[in-house]
Write a structure and sequence with these properties.
Strand order of the largest sheet: 2-1-3-4
Radius of gyration: 13 Å
Shape: globular
Largest sheet: 4 strands, antiparallel
Order of helices and strands: EEHEEHHH
Length: 96
């Protein structure tokens, strides 16, 4: 592992609140905590979709969470996956 290969991620999760309300939760984390934060977002029972971005705002990885696989129609989930990296709310969180 090189000197600059340490993880420095923005981990975001789209969270199901109720049928008409979703929220986006995000945190910047480094090193081993980055992996823990990603895994927490992946497995949270109300996560619709989780995503990891680097500090330049580039998409690293992401997928549907438990609530996305269980409660969201497949076509809606595909659209969310396609549009998430360019979504205005997501971009504002990444810039904050």
């Amino acid at each position: 592992m090189g000197l600059f290969s340490r993880k420095d991620w923005n981990v975001l999760a789209v969270i199901f609140q109720r049928p008409d309300l979703y929220s986006v939760s995000g945190q910047r984390v480094k090193g081993g905590d980055a992996t823990k934060a990603r895994d927490g977002a992946k497995t949270h029972s109300r996560t619709v979709y989780w995503a990891v971005f680097d500090q330049k705002g580039s998409f690293v990885e992401g997928a549907a969470g438990p609530a996305g696989n269980r409660d969201i129609p497949g076509d809606v989930l595909k659209k969310l996956e396609r549009e998430l990296p360019t979504n205005r709310t997501i971009q504002e969180i990444l810039k904050a």
